[in-house]
Amino acid sequence: MNPSRIFLFLAFSGFAAAADLAPQLGTLGDKLLEESFAGTELPKGWASNTGTLHVADGTLLAAEKSSDMHIGAFRFRLPVQDCAVQIDFKLGDARIFNLGFDPSPGELKKKGHLLSVTVAKTGWSIIEHNDKANPESKTKVHAKVETAFDPATTYTLMVECKGDNVVAQITGKEPLKAAAADFHVKKTGLVFRVGGKDGQEVAFDNVKVWALK
Q1: How many CB atoms lie within 10 A of CB 100?
Q2: What tens digit of pLDDT does each residue of 11-24 get?
Q3: What is the pTM of this model?
């Protein structure tokens, strides 16, 4: 194929696959998921709770919907514990997106999310979510850095969980690190949340999940 045609194909068919980031908490084990959103429909297992979620031009596009009166949220169910999750993303006009985990049923007494890596145009962080069943419980920010994320640039994010430790890496940024007593628990899968006005979509591609040894 003519090189110029290859470029055009990549430009209009999702993100070109980036090189995998190197994990810091262990070594990659079995690959549990690999999704490039090459079709025209949502692949099996991807489900929207609120907001909009669809596939176009080889990418997964997600946005908040104001009529839901809730941040856009979608999931991929995949039982994991010690794991590494890698995904390419482009913020576009959206305000923020989170990639995180929920505890599996019976693992904790708390209600709600476990942890998330949050990314906005002006910085990113690792947070431990509050217990929604306890009005005195507060969300805790374990690591936070102010740094610019260009809305039009494609970044690669890797989130590692091993034991009670979490490391988040993004291409071109210093890694974030956190630890908490509950982070080691079994997790239900991937949890995404996207915030912004109607139509302000975050683009995702090249999702990979490994067991972490």
Answers
A1: 22
A2: 344 787 778 899 99
A3: 0.91
